Amino acid sequence: MFDTGNTAFMLIASSLVMLMTPGLAFFYGGLVGRKNVLTIMIQSFVSMGVTTIVWWAYGYSLCFSGGEGGIIGNLDKAFLNGVTLNTVCPFGQGNIPEFVFMAYQMMFAIITPALITGAFSNRVRFGPYLVFLIGWLTFVYFPFVHMVWGNGLLAKLGVLDFAGGIVVHNIAGMAALASVLYVGRRKVGDSVPHSIPLVALGTGLLWFGWYGFNAGSQLRVDAVTGLAFLNTDIAASFAGPTWLLLAWMIEKKPKFLGLLTGAVAGLATITPAAGYVTPTSAALIGIAAGAVCYFAVSMKNKLGWDDALDVWGVHGVGGALGIILLGIMADKTVNAAGADGLLNGNTSFFIAQIGTIVASSIYAFAFTYFMLVVINKFSRVRTTKDEEELGLDASLHGETAYDEDQVLAHIRQRAQAL
Length: 418
What we know:
This protein has 418 residues and is mainly alpha-helical. The chain has a single domain, classed as Ammonium transporter AmtB like domains (Ammonium transporter fold). It has helices at 4-31, 37-64, 98-116, 126-149, 153-156, 165-183, 196-215, 223-251, 256-270, 279-303, 311-329, 347-378, 385-390, 392-397, 404-417. The longest helix is centred in the last third of the chain and has 32 residues, at 347-378. The relative contact order is 0.14.
């Protein structure tokens, strides 16, 4: 009844996507200052626990049970009701257990809200963040998963998103922008990034995990799986050097951080198109990602938006760009289950992609802002200046990533020895 090869592959893909959340924690942890490392990392790691509970209780059901052609599903599969060892996944043609599909999609749910946290680093209290995490999943993420991947409204309209340009990156990026504008700028300057090697480690884990993120979205092993894997690597490999070269020309230095950020931008941008375009198109998408996301971040800086870790510029803009370029470059000769894009004469598909990205951006931004306003009525969202000066690791969590006294003592001992 089950295809053991596809099942084994999907378990590996699920593990790869799970690894992306610790990778994101390292990526963000390196980008913030020394006094706020643990605060940003716990926001990613806590999603692994809280989101799993929510997904098991009702999230999976709302996304993938009932509601055909609608905005949200039902609660028929809440607490995995009716899902047994012998239940076959109703999506795709991989003949895998529904338990495996549920676990795979759960990993997407875990990392998506964690992406947002990079925007408001050093400024949000932990309790309100947990409320935000659950609310955002329920009212933003779950509806879009259902509409795009759960036979919901957008799927019926012919919208395509292979692995999460809309569902993951765009809505997370727009939520990040809303969060930044609501909480405002940091009151205390932060010496960032404090560890580029930590950022590099996180980038490596993200890039590695992204193969499961994109290739696994085919839900079985076939030629399209291989195409998505290859396109993922090609796009990232073109985007990173594109960002590097632009920074080299404009900022006069070839910065390692630019190469790393550009690669992540390429990964985010190819995500919706990975299984629907040719490798040549993937290369063009990577170049576009490196350039457009670089200038989006530059614009953000000029406007004074304190998106600390460039979530909007990389994920929000990258996800939107990927959906638009998919509308232009999609090619049914590489995936019969896809569509032809504008370059192949399909104007209606291009318009549907554009309309969807506009609607998803507006909704994710507006609802996130509204939700933060409501949460703040009951529990203060923003940290105080004193908390920021001390560092959120110590002031909110009572922990520190580095023993500063021990480090200073070691430096003094080395100085005396010299």
